[in-house]
Amino acid sequence: MAICELCEAARLTEWYFEDDLCWVAECEVCYVPMIVWKQHDAMPSEEIKIQLHQRLLAVVDALFDYVPYIDDNMRNIPDHYHAHARGRGFGFGNPPPRKK
Fold first, then answer.
1. Averaged over 62-70, what is the pLDDT?
2. How far apart are CA 7 and CA 54, in angstroms?
3. Is residue 100 part of a domain?
């Protein structure tokens, strides 16, 4: 049985936040903050999704200097809910600007 990379939650990049619901870390592929629901399920309720997105946006607001948008198109790991806080102007694969 294959192990889910997101369930494994290996700390390969910087982690910004964690609680009982989720964790937020730098995505190892695109370098933007990414939130991961701790439940292995691709379809959280709308209420859970709102809570996840609020936590992700709070991390971006506290640490970064860009206007984010939520991208929850789960391209590479479609069976475990996660979302990225993408931005415009710094390009894919470049880390977003941090607050000074």
1. 97
2. 21
3. no
Q: What is the dihedral of CA 23, 80, 3, 33, to 10 degrees?
A: -40
**Cα dihedral sign, 77-83-87-90:** negative
CATH no. for residue 35? 3.30.428.10
Tell me the sheet residues that pair with 1.
Answer: none
- Give the list of residues 6+ apart from residue 12 with CB closer than 8 angstroms, or none: 28
44 is in which domain, residue-wise?
5-87
Backbone angles phi, psi at 26, to 5 degrees: -70, 130
Give pTM, 2 decimals.
0.94
Each residue's pLDDT tens digit, 15-61: 999 999 999 999 999 999 999 999 999 999 999 999 999 999 999 99
Total number of domains in the chain: 1
> Could you tell me the end-to-end alpha-carbon distance of the chain, in angstroms, rounded to an integer?
45
- pLDDT at residue 1 is higher than 70: no
